Structure formats: structure tokens, C-alpha cells
Amino acid sequence: MLDVKTRAGTNLPQADVTRLAAQVAAATRLLNMLGILDYSGHISARLPGRDALLIQPNTDSRAELLPERILTVSFDGEVLQGDDKPPSELPIHIEILKARPDVQAVLHCHMRIAIAFTMMEGVTIKPMRARSVRWESGIPVHPDPSHIKLKEQGLALAKTLGPHNAALMRAHGMVLTAESVPALLIDAVHFEENATALMQVLQAGAKPIALTRAEMDQINRHERREHHIGKLWKYYVRKGISEGLLPREWPLGV
Ligand SMILES: [Zn+2]
């Protein structure tokens, strides 16, 4: 379990911090299982009330990440709790969380099918499947293909992302933002489903028919995002437990 004393200044009950760290570890393992994360990529979670985030250590395997290994890192990049280095692309998380107070969790990954769409002339990812209304405002493409290791690079990426819920990074990867770690996991699943659907249409040689504005309005009228996230979080966590990927005792709320 996490150290109560070292995290006592978070203004959060310790049980909440422990749960958040367990969510980060579980979502990382699940995204690895789903092929969305692999040897690289990471999830961060904002510590409410603090200019700090939770994130995994640089080289810990995404396949077997442990909650007690999750670091607390300040928005200045200082490790406040934990005895390892954060990922080198930490500025992605810091600058997005600073720029977007509405965002509680950030995923950076190198989803292969998403990257493919940054390397095709004249093709962008549009909302195709019903759940992709999440990205109805657009999915900007960040033009810098290099790894984001500097504050200035993180700032530029946050600027490209703007108010949107996803951005692609040319020839490199993508970022997703959400209101919670469970929501981030479910958004990642739906993002890949949508990109895959579009790729299947293109590979069939057909002209894609994206969702229209009227269709998205109709979907949004019946959307119950919180319920949907709860349902799918339960599905994936229980699947993880039943397959031996996740320890039953982690406080994941299902
Ligand atoms: Zn990267």
C-alpha cells in the first residue's frame, strides 16, 4: 500500500490516492493487454487540489505495473514521492494538465493505427462509429514527430490539442484526455475501434461515410457517458481479474 505520510499533503484522503494509483496501474496493464500500450506509453492522473500528477516510472513494464511503484511528480517535474525516474516524455502530461483544468487523466501512446493516419495524404480520422462523437470537435495532428522531452515541446503539443479530447502526433503517437482514468481507458478502446473502422472502409476501396452533424446530435441526445464508462470499466477490470492480469485486491471499485 502507498505511504500515507509522504502523500499526506495532497489534500486527498489517502484512500483516494491509493485508488487513483491502482486505477493508473490497472488501466496501463489493460491497455497493454489490448495492444494500445506496449513497451512505451503512459497514463497520468491529476492529483486533485495539487499541481502534481501520478505517473509510472520510466522503465517499469506496462504489462505488470504495480500501484505502489506509481510516482507523484510535481508540475515542475520534481519527483515528490517514489524513488525512480518518470518517463522521458513527462512534459506531455504536465503541459496538458496545466493547460486543461477540465482534464483529470492523460494517455500518451503509440497506437499503430492512429499513427498510420498521420502518414496518409488527404486522410484524417473522422467520427465513423457512434461512440466516436467524443471526438466531434476534431482531432488535430501535431506536426512535430520528435519525442516530447522538453517543456517547450510539451507546450506546443498542448497548444495543438487545444480544447479537443485527442490529438495525433505525426509519425509518433497520440494523446487522449478524459475526466477520469476509467474514462480514459474506455475512450482509448473507442478511439481504436473508430480508427480501425475507418481503415477497413479505406482498405475496401470505399468512400468513407462519416457521421453527420445531425447524426451526432441524435447520438448525443441519448448519450449516458458516465453509465457507459462504469459498465465498460467493470467489464475490462473483471476480465483482467478473471484472466489473472489484475490482482483481485486492488481497490478498483468493481
Ligand atoms: Zn511517445
Structural notes for this entry:
By secondary structure, this protein is of the alpha+beta class. Helices cover 38% and strands 13% of the residues. It is built from 7 helices and 8 strands; from the N terminus they run αββββαβαβαββααα. It has helices spanning 14-33, 90-99, 112-116, 151-161, 181-203, 213-221, 225-242, and strands at residues 42-46, 52-55, 71-74, 79-81, 105-109, 141-142, 166-169, 173-178. An 8-stranded mixed beta sheet has the order 4-3-2-1-5-8-7-6, with helices on both faces. Strand 1 and strand 2 (52-55) form a beta hairpin. The two termini are 19 Å apart. Zinc ion (ZN) is lined by residues 89, 108, 110, 147, 172-173. Residues 89, 108, 110, 147, 172-173 line the site of zinc ion.
Distance between the termini: 19 Å
The CATH architecture can be named as 3-Layer(aba) Sandwich
- Summarize model confidence as the mean pLDDT: 95
Each distinct ligand: zinc ion
Number of domains: 1
Strand tally is 8
Please describe the biggest sheet, giving its number of strands, its sense, and whether it closes into a barrel: 8 strands, mixed
Spatial extent as radius of gyration: 18 Å
What would CATH call the homologous superfamily?
Class II aldolase/adducin N-terminal domain
> In CATH's first tier, which class applies?
Alpha Beta
Strand content: 5-15%
Shape: globular
Total helical segments: 7
CATH topology annotation: L-fuculose-1-phosphate Aldolase
Can you write the helix and strand succession as a string?
HEEEEHEHEHEEHHH
Low-pLDDT regions: 1-8
Structural class: alpha+beta
Q: Residue share in helices?
A: 25-40%
| Order of strands in the sheet with most strands | 4-3-2-1-5-8-7-6
